[in-house]
Write a structure and sequence with these properties.
mainly beta, Immunoglobulin-like, 0% helix, binds 2-acetamido-2-deoxy-beta-D-glucopyranose, Ig-like domain-containing protein, Ig_V-set
């Protein structure tokens, strides 16, 4: 059974901080692909990046400051040099 657990619900940060959104997952797939999405006030879910095995892809606008590191149980999202416009809901899908 596939399962995602984003245990931190709300996170606050100061501009310029590095923020990590912890997220664990469980899946029956040996080599799952995990997708991070960003949702802003307009409600649109924007694909940010995905991770699989030892690889992954990032959309251009997220390449510089958004990174995710994947292991067998977790795929935390790190946002560097955070700014006001990063205020959003972040979703992990697997
Ligand atoms: C996977 O990463 C998480 C968060 O970085 C860490 O807590 C966990 O111990 C790691 N698990 C494995 C199997 O390496």
């Amino acid at each position: 059974q596939d399962k995602v657990d984003q245990h931190t619900r709300i996170q606050f940060a100061f501009e310029g901080d590095t923020v990590t959104i912890d997220c664990t997952y469980q899946t029956a797939y040996a080599n799952p692909t995990l997708f991070w999405y960003q949702q802003k006030d307009n409600g649109i879910l924007k694909h940010m990046l995905n991770k699989f095995a030892k690889s992954g892809n990032s959309e251009e606008e997220f390449k510089e400051r958004f990174h995710a590191s994947l292991n067998k149980t977790a795929v935390p999202l790190t946002i560097q040099d955070v700014c006001v416009s990063d205020s959003a809901v972040y979703y992990l899908l697997c």
